Amino acid sequence: MSQFPDENSEDGEFARQEDAFRDWVSADGSTAYPAESGRYHLYVSLACPWASRTVIVRHLTGLEESVGLTVLDPVRDERGWAFREGPGFTTDPINGFNFLREAYVASAPYFHGRVTVPVLWDKTAGCIVNNSEDDICQMFNDAFGGRQRVELFPADLEPAHAELARFIYENVNNGVYRAGFADKQAAYERAFRTLFAALDELESRLATRRYLFGARIVEVDWRLFCTLVRFDAVYHGHFKCNLRRIADYPNLQGYLRDLYQQPGIAATVNIEHIKRHYYFTHEDINPTRIVPLGPLLDFTTPPGRGHFSDD
Q: Which end of the chain is more exposed for a tag (fewer CB within 10 A), N or C?
């Protein structure tokens, strides 16, 4: 039995379900969801790379006071993501929900798909606006106008930025899942080889530039970061992505440390949530539910990337 049988093809390939909610928050009032401070709330798990990217962008755009945040229990059982009180996660202060599925059913009563994070909730309308991390990051950057005016999607880098984002999503972000959730050997091997070919390509790219597009950190850097920071802790062992660790790639490892050490980013990373979620939740992959004590990870040592600072 595969982890998510409804999302595996006959040849064993993992095909992720589409996001169910794709409405848009607008700065100019052109949609039903205007960008109003205090109106929206973000439900996330710090274990999830997709959700963690929205937490990072919320921080970078200075929206902590404008958009609320609730962190769910990293352990997801047959009832789905849950609101519980524990180390680094809390009950739901907005709606009093016990499970995130309640938010989905309140927004779409006949929803029957898999409940995922992140979720952007509209407190005024009482419904989910969007559960696509790509959309949420774009809206935080474009619509809300946070106190820290950063440009994570610079116009002068498009369409190259979008093309690289697609490459990283298909081969790395989702590539680890295509390997980990494959339920046939050939499907796993295809995903495995594609993943490491992509990592090799990114390692070469980062040999000549500090970040993916040179001196500037843009959204695609955070997209890659959210997978890299989890790789050695969970994807290498739990998802059998074990040809090499990120620690074995000098440029990717230095790049990972460089991003981790940017102001406020370390607070968005919770390795204990990450390990507990993957090893405890994916019972079909790890039926004993034993959570490993290792590996010993230190993202605080010097990145060794300073020689690229003026590129």
A: N
110 counts as catalytic: no
Whether pTM > 0.85 for this model: the answer is yes
Give the DSSP letter string of 128-186: EEE--HHHHHHHHHHTS--SS---SS-GGGTTHHHHHHHHHIIIIITHHHHHHT--SHH
Length of the chain, in residues? 311
Under 8 Å CB-to-CB from 204, ≥6 apart: which residues?
251
Give the tokens for residue 222: 């955070």
Whole-angstrom distance, CA of residue 86 vs CA of residue 72: 9
Q: What would the two tokens of residue 16 be?
A: 């992720």
Using DSSP, state whether 304 is helix, strand or coil.
coil
> Would you state the structure tokens that stand for residue 245, as one six-digit string?
């660790």
CB 37 within 8 A of CB 65: yes
What's the pLDDT tens digit per position in 132-145? 999 999 999 999 97
Given the residues 48, 137, 226, 241, the one annotated as active site: 48
Burial class (CB in 10 A: 0-12, 13-18, 19+), 293: exposed
Distance CA 147, CA 296 (A): 36
- DSSP H/E element including 193: helix 185-205
Alpha helices of 218-296 — where are they, by DSSP H?
A: 219-230, 250-260, 271-281
Cα–Cα distance measured from residue 269 to residue 231, given in angstroms and rounded to the nearest whole number = 13
Domains of the chain: 5-142 (3.40.30.10), 155-308 (1.20.1050.10)
Task: Let me know the angle formed at the C-alpha of 17 by 11 and 21, rounded to the nearest 5 degrees.
Answer: 170
DSSP lists the bridge partners of residue 120 as: 42, 130
**Active-site option among 40, 177, 255, 260:** 177
Q: Is 279 a catalytic residue?
A: no
- pLDDT digits over 267-281, tens only? 999 999 999 999 999
